[in-house]
Amino acid sequence: MTAAAIEPSRGEAARDDRVAHRPLAARLLSRPEVGSLIGAIVIFALFMAVAPPFRNVANVGTILYGASTIGIMAVPVALLMIGGEFDLSAGVAVTTSGLSASLLAWNFGLNVWVGILLALVVSVAVGAFNGWLLFKTGLPSFLVTLATFFILQGVNLGVTRLLTGNVATADITDMDGFHSAHTMFGSEVTVGPVTLKITVLYWVVLTLVAAYVLLRTRVGNWIFAVGGDAAAARAVGVPVKATKIGLFMAVGFCAWLSGMHLLFQFNTVQSGEGVGKEFIFIIAAVIGGCLLTGGYGSVVGASIGALIFGMTQLGINYAGWNPDWFKTFLGVMLLLATIVNVYVKKKADLR
């Protein structure tokens, strides 16, 4: 049987028919993103009550901006986790992308757009390399991407210092193509009292496209299949290798997009940036309903998880609380989200 010929079995069709006839409440509670949605409502209500600046409509743009910078990466990381893999290099890959565009354009006297396109090649190649190495070595993706994390971290610092004598790239404001690139990756629009960064648009579009692919296409079925049982998926014709490498490349693409915003928002990139952010992306995905075992999750939930981060980061400051407690919040949310996800998955399987 070929991958193109894969169709839902009679058992799956019967199951889908049973799902369609469940009460609405039962169907909603069996969704993987239900825990993150409830959590978002609780966080919103909490900070609305204790942080007066949180109620200011003008701060909505700031909250959404913080959420979008996490969400752009949380969406592909969630897809990868549903496919049964991790990418611990995602945080530093964002920095690698920004550094690549800036250093290549600056040192070779190129138009900024040439640097941007070369950075895209570098970012997607890093993702493809992670996927290729995963299958070539047979090692867990945790170890493969942990190695890539250290490699990229060292390259980011070493190459930047070698070429600039500093830990940051030069300011590229005066280079050809900068202003059009800034419009594409670092612009903003004001709607009434709310200022929205372009990353919010990218975040929403990525979420919608990823949700459609995951839930409405054959590729989405493949992602769930390779995450649930790769051997069984391969036996029925699913292109396991291509699917997983494609997911790593999707992480690379979004790292490029996030890296371009990093560069054109600040006109320079710090080579040590991004370390530790990979855990935030993973936590956002887990809060959104992804299981660490793969085969289950939601990109919409991952975006809601990113929104929770955005609300919490600013809410703590607005409430006048000690921001040191934010890391404690991350740990608690990760633990609770994992427990809720396992519970919801068991309930969904029983139904």
UniProtKB/TrEMBL annotation:
Q: Which residues cross the membrane?
A: 34-51, 63-81, 88-106, 112-135, 142-159, 194-215, 246-267, 279-305, 325-344
Is Metal-binding included in the keywords of this UniProt record?
A: no
Query: Which of UniProt's keywords are assigned here?
Result: Cell inner membrane, Cell membrane, Membrane, Sugar transport, Transmembrane, Transmembrane helix, Transport
The family database entries (InterPro entries) matched by this protein are listed as: ABC_transp_permease
Subcellular location, principal: membrane
Please verify whether the record's keywords include Iron-sulfur. no
Subcellular location per UniProt equals: Cell membrane
* Membrane disposition: Multi-pass membrane protein
Q: Which domain of life is it from?
A: Bacteria
Function as written in the Swiss-Prot or TrEMBL entry: Part of the binding-protein-dependent transport system for D-xylose. Probably responsible for the translocation of the substrate across the membrane.
| Name of this chain's protein | Xylose transport system permease protein XylH
Q: Which organism is it from?
A: Planosporangium thailandense
From the broadest rank down, the organism's phylogenetic lineage runs:
Bacteria, Bacillati, Actinomycetota, Actinomycetes, Micromonosporales
